C-alpha cells in the first residue's frame, strides 16, 4: 500500500493523491504527459463541478489516443520498441477490453495516458537493462557488420538509413536522417560504428524517468489504464470536502451518496460487500476511504 509510504530520494507518494499532485512530486511525468497530449484526438465532456461527481468508472476513458498512435508516442518518449513486440502488447490490451462485454470495440481502440505509461515502463525497463549490458548497441553493430563484407567500417548512406529505421530497435527516421546527413562523406558512405554509439547513447535520465513512471502507476492503481482519471480526481475532491478534518474516514451512507450522485445505482448491500474490513469498528468513525479507493483502483 502506497499511502504515506516514503521512497528513497522521492517525496512521500500518497495513494490518495490526485494527478496534479503526483505530477508535482514526480517532475518527469508531466514531460511524458505533454508528449502523450500531442496525440490526443478529442476530449470527452468533463463532469460538472461541485459535489455532483461520480465514483471512478471503468471503461470511461475520457482523454485518449488511438492505439495506432501509441508506437509513435512511445518513440517520442525516447523508446525504440520493436514493432512485433509492441503490437503483441497492444493486441493483448485490446482483447482484454473487448472481452469485458458488448459496446467495448470503440473504447478498446483507445489508449489512456496510464496505459501508454504502463507500456512505457514495461519497455523502458527492458531497454535500461539492455543498455546497461550494451546489448542494443552490439546487436545493431552485429547486423551492420554483416552487411559490411569488406570490413571497411563503412556502409552506403541509403543502406544504413534503411537498416536503422527498420531493424528491431528501430530509430525515428527524422533523427536518423539528421545524423546521417552530417556523417556521410562525399561518396555517400558513413562510418557506422561511432555513429551507432552516438545514436544509442544512454539517456542519463532514463532510469529516473522509469522509476518515477513506476511510482505514478503504483499510486493511481492498476485499473487506471481503463478509467477517466479526471473523474477519479473529482471523487477525491468530493471525499476531501466530506471530511474537512482529514480524519481519513467517512460514514457509509455519505459514501453511498457520493457514489450515486451521478446516476450510479450502488445499493447499500453492494457497498457493504465492498467495504468489508475497511470500517473503524473500535472508534466507530466510518469507512477508511483511502483503502476504499485503493480497492476500487486495484481490484
Automatic annotation (TrEMBL):
GO molecular function: myosin heavy chain binding
Domain of life: Eukaryota
GO biological process: insemination
GO cellular component terms attached to this protein's record: extracellular space; myosin II complex
Protein name: MIP10861p
Gene behind the chain: Dmel\CG34435
